[in-house]
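FORM 7B: Structural annotation worksheet

SECTION A. Query
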Amino acid sequence: MTHLLSSDVAFTPTVKALQALRGSRDNYAKMEARGGFHTAIDEDLAEFVAGVDTAYLATATAAGQPYAQHRGGPKGFIRVLDEHTLAFADYTGNRQYITAGNLADNDKAFLFLMDYALRRRIKVWGRARVSDDPATIAQLMPENYRARPEQAILFTVEAWDVNCPQHIPVKIDAGEVAGAIEHLKARIAVLEAENAVLKGQSQ
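SECTION B. Predicted structure
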């Protein structure tokens, strides 16, 4: 019986054959020898998730038709419940319910987490389910966030891996930029006031 590796969630036999054909199989075989992808939420992933305000959740129909949808909120809107579970409140949107319908038929799911400012991305494979439990939804709802939660998504992590930063554009959060600009404006005002005093003393 062939032992399955955590990285086999992505590296199918066909993928491995292509890696061999194009010269990258040896490197990934070494990674597999070290255990493959991570299988539990550690401190590094928990810290990354705490700073995330943007994620993409991918699901598929029972027939395999893929679908991806953006999920966002204040930093930390995705919570770590235990070493294998990520969760977040799902807000009322356009009410198409494609993700919820897909998960009802096929619980396989994928999270793509982005940090554009620091050019980092993490891929997470697993299974997800929808919860309508009011207590769970309330627990996951970000404090003072102006959105109406409709349900919760609980994501069981089976494997995760870090992508290289190559080709990720640097994008800075507008709120952080505004804060930096206000700080600079305040500093300039202080310096201009000091400069005016010095000019008055020299006359």
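SECTION C. Observations
The first strand starts at residue 54 and ends at 60. The longest helix spans residues 174-202.

SECTION D. Sign-off
Analyst initials: ____
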